[in-house]
From TrEMBL:
It comes from the Eukaryota. InterPro entries: Methyltransf_25, PUA-like_sf, SAM-dependent_MTases_sf. Gene3D superfamilies: Hypothetical protein (2.30.130.30), Vaccinia Virus protein VP39 (3.40.50.150). This is Methyltransferase domain-containing protein.
Amino acid sequence: FIQGQPKVEKCIEFGSGSSCSSIYLAEQGFEVDAVDICEVAIERAKTLPNAHMVNWVKADLLADDLFESAITENGYDLVFDMQCYHVLRLIDETKVATNIYRALKPTGTAVVVVGAALPNRDNDSVAPDGKDIEGKPGPPLLTLDQLRLPLERAGLTTVQLSLSRFNPTPHYASLPGGLAPLAWMGIFRKIQWNAEDAYALEVQAPFSTYILEGKKSIETRAYALPPTLLHKPIYLLESQQGQDGVSSVGDFIPAQVPTSDTSSVRIIGTVVFTACTQYTSQVQFDADREKHLVPVGSAYDYTVETDTHRFEQNLNNIKAQPIISMKEGKIKELFAWEVGSFEANVYEEFPALKRVHRSFFKVVK
Ligand SMILES: C[S@@+](CC[C@H](N)C(=O)[O-])C[C@H]1O[C@@H](n2cnc3c(N)ncnc32)[C@H](O)[C@@H]1O
């Protein structure tokens, strides 16, 4: 993940301790502030090779005046947190999540790595699932919701959740099973939806047309409609049907004049969503079939199947790298976005669009 990021960006590590993550980030081209409350840990980190590349800061990440003295609010492209969030949440979950949010620039990304609890797992080298294990060897274990919900409540958007293991250490090797504990890696983004900006939603043909023909009055998605976009006209960006669940459009679409009806992507009108609710049962989803038109058994259908079983079988094969995505590893969430109104339109010109989140693009002026 880190290697794919633009270089010379500002990064802050929360709870850097005496490990070498911050130095690694600096070596990758980031300008890094490494923050820890513990003087001894910082002094030890300073003895590591290339430690001079990092700005070491002694501060309490839960201090009321954190942004007045030690670190800059809205100042960082990347917040990196390896095993600090999962400690600080025991003291003040809301505050640590809020401080991660506040530290980030408006388009910044947070990478948070915590001990992982899996449902129905009792065979790992550390403690029982879903419980913090203070006093036992290994990190606190968090469920996915314990990781993501406080950060989402603070205003961040979950981009990806993956399962990995912490790096092997002699200590972990000496425990029964010899494996380092499982870890969740969450990637979160601070997205600022601006009521003054124009947005476009990619919808694959033929569902895009069904909306404009009034045949499809509910759009179903695996995430909630950002509240700022409720009751607001959104461009309908039609793309061609491709692989299920995979966008066939790049992350940036240059301004263009549509040449023909066979253009692979085009804006065909606007849609206004007037409500967004989450489906909580199969019955509820089935009752809306006529409205959302999702084909039975398709990749977009309601399902409560989880891949937890698959992960259970493969736990011993999960190494520190590579990580595996948990996107489909949890119960699929489905939301109903109710179409309030729509308008078909032919556009002479096509603005440049930049993907900001999932299927949403922002019109770039
Ligand atoms: C489990 S260690 C993780 C260290 C390092 N990130 C790593 O992966 O090895 C947690 C770190 O958070 C730091 N920490 C705990 N409370 C803190 C606070 N209120 N403000 C800043 N750092 C804190 C501790 O001093 C410790 O270095």
